[in-house]
Amino acid sequence: MRARIRDHGLSLFFLALFVFALVGQSVAGYFRNNDELTQHGQAPIDFGTFVWSSDFLVDVAENWQSEFLQFFLFIAATIWFVQRGSPESKKPGDEGAGNDEDQLVGEHARPDSPVWARAGGWRTLIYGNSLLIVMGVVFLLSWLAQSLAGTVVMSAENAMHGGPPLTWFDYVGSADFWDRTLQNWQSEFLAVGTMVAFSIYLRQRGSAESKPVGTPHHESSVESD
Questions:
Q1: For each of the chain's 225 residues, which pLDDT tens digit applies?
Q2: Is 38 found in the same domain as 143?
Q3: Per-residue burial over 182-216, b = 16 or more CB atoms within 10 Å of its CB, e = otherwise
Q4: What pTM does this model have?
Q5: 16 and 107 inside one domain
């Protein structure tokens, strides 16, 4: 059991942080939401009702869609673009999807390679792009959830002020939607860009996200192996 925990420690660590942060967000959001209801002369709601409400969903989905968009674009960009010296990039000259021999697919697969990597044809094509596909699907679903929940929330806020309800198209085309969306996107793009650039010149001993401390700035960790 101890060995299994050690082997999956990174995933378990971030899973624990995720659960802790999500629970904390739900509690803080619950009190904030009830404060707003009280200010508008409405009765507070119980915690379970809030967790299943559009108010909570829109905030969660808003962050999820920006995170998965970040990874979707980063995965796609690193196929064709390189950054000399960054451990987040392939070395210059290795742009592209690579050949079957490099990717260990089809007739070049090993006996312990994943089944669909050995299968060839459409199954290998799908499996060879499965990470990008899943990240893209999760982004689209969370973006849709954000937009639907946001429509309900904005319609409720309009009702409090005597305004009309919004349609989904009204909300998706509104300044509120794009303000909430783009403020998350720009922060994600900045974080990825700085990670790529900072890792050229800065080091963190022992981290898989850093080159070895003594590696020259112009070399990536791949080139120094």
A1: 888 888 989 999 999 999 999 999 999 999 998 998 888 788 899 999 999 999 899 999 999 999 999 999 999 999 999 999 998 888 888 899 988 998 989 889 899 999 999 998 999 999 999 999 999 999 999 999 999 999 999 998 888 778 888 899 999 999 989 998 999 999 999 999 999 999 999 999 888 888 888 988 888 765 655
A2: no
A3: eebeeebeeebeeebeebbeebeeeeeebbeeebe
A4: 0.86
A5: no
> Do both 123 and 157 map to the same domain?
yes
Task: Note whether 50 and 32 are within 8 A (CB).
Answer: no
CB count within 10 Å of CB 47 equals: 12
Domain that holds residue 38: 1-52
Q: How far is CA 6 from CA 11, 19, 89, 210, in A?
A: 10, 19, 27, 21
Sequence letter at residue 71: F
**What's the CA gap between 171 and 178, in Å, rounded?**
9
Same domain, 45 and 108: no
Instruction: Clarify whether residues 130 and 190 are in a common domain.
Output: yes
Domains identified in the chain, total number: 2
